[in-house]
């Protein structure tokens, strides 16, 4: 169980960090394109893409430290739900996308919730 706990933390951290790096450095045009579809351009789009990417990276590194993990889990849940709601309003077709950019959030939320639940046991050495 302890190995699963660590794997969950690091795999989620990797998702957050890689998503943030992709948003900022590897493919920011994808985020700008999605936002442009909703007539969000200019400075607001830059804040959304680069701010969201930065937030993702911070969440990933925070998760790796496991410092105040319960708050980190809550921040992740709020972030994922916010992104999902915004994307639903911007372009609901992402729910039906073959790569599942929104539907993948559901099992990720379950994993984050599991981490939230077992954190106390892990910190107490019971895992």
TrEMBL record:
Pfam families named in the record: DoxX_3
Transmembrane stretches, start-end: 7-27, 47-64, 71-90, 96-116
Keywords assigned by UniProt, alphabetized: Membrane, Transmembrane, Transmembrane helix
Record flagged with keyword Membrane: yes
UniProt protein name: NAD-dependent dehydratase
Source organism of the structure: Pseudoalteromonas luteoviolacea S4060-1
Lineage, highest ranks first: Bacteria, Pseudomonadati, Pseudomonadota, Gammaproteobacteria, Alteromonadales
């Amino acid at each position: 169980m302890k190995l699963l706990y660590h794997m969950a933390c690091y795999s989620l951290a990797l998702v957050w960090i890689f998503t943030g790096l992709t948003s900022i450095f590897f493919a920011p045009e994808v985020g700008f394109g999605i936002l442009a579809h909703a007539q969000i351009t200019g400075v607001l789009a830059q804040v959304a893409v680069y701010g969201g990417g930065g937030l993702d990276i911070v969440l990933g590194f925070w998760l790796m430290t496991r410092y105040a993990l319960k708050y980190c889990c809550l921040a992740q849940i709020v972030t994922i739900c916010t992104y999902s709601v915004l994307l639903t309003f911007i372009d609901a077709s992402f729910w039906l996308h073959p790569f599942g950019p929104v539907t993948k959030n559901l099992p990720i939320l379950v994993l984050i919730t599991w981490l939230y639940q077992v954190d106390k046991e892990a910190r107490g050495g019971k895992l």
